[in-house]
From TrEMBL:
Keyword field contains Endoplasmic reticulum: no
Organism expressing this protein natively: Mionectes macconnelli (McConnell's flycatcher)
Any one Gene Ontology BP term: positive regulation of cilium assembly
Coiled-coil parts of chain: 19-94
GO cellular component, one term: ciliary basal body
Protein name stated in the entry: Endosome-associated-trafficking regulator 1
This protein's encoding gene: Sdccag3
Keywords attached to this entry: Coiled coil
Family stated for the protein in its record: Belongs to the ENTR1 family.
Length: 159
């Protein structure tokens, strides 16, 4: 009975050591799990911050594009008005040439209108180029957002 008792105590002692070892492993794994959760939370927060930043940039670029479109529309209207003025000046110039009175003034008016028209045309082209550049930037941001969605889908599948 004493031998059996000693054997059982020995087994109990071994089981306690094994239990403590397993408990240590369990605590280590729980700690590692908690660290991984914290790491994932931080990565998710970082990703969310990046998405918000990209969205803010997208809104800013959208505002710029709208402003450029409005500016381009205004310049087109001004261009059309100047073309009408140019036609009127040319008609006036022709009338003055027929009447031989005030020829120099009509030429000067036509030249001024032409110079103004050329300036507006050049300005309109620059605005249109800026608008196209803004549209390309918006496309780039949209592609970036698509790739962020793919990254988050891959990371969710990897869990």
């Amino acid at each position: 009975l004493k031998e059996e008792n000693a054997t059982l105590r020995s087994k109990i002692s071994k089981l306690q050591v094994l239990s403590e070892t397993q408990a240590d492993k369990m605590r280590k794994l729980e700690k590692k799990l908690e660290e991984n959760k914290l790491k994932e939370e931080k990565e998710a927060q970082d990703l969310e911050a990046m998405v918000q930043h990209v969205e803010q940039n997208l809104q800013l670029m959208t505002k710029r594009a709208v402003k450029a479109e409005n500016s381009a529309a205004k310049l087109r209207q001004e261009n059309a008005l100047l073309q009408v003025q140019l036609r009127n000046s040319k008609a006036e110039n022709e009338a003055l040439q027929l009447g031989q009175a005030g020829l120099a003034a009509a030429k000067q008016n036509a030249e001024l209108a032409l110079q103004h028209l050329l300036r507006v045309t050049t300005s309109s082209r620059a605005s249109i180029r800026q608008l196209l550049s803004g549209a390309e930037s918006l496309q780039l941001v949209a592609d970036l957002l698509k790739s962020i969605d793919r990254i988050s889908e891959v990371s969710e599948d990897g869990q």
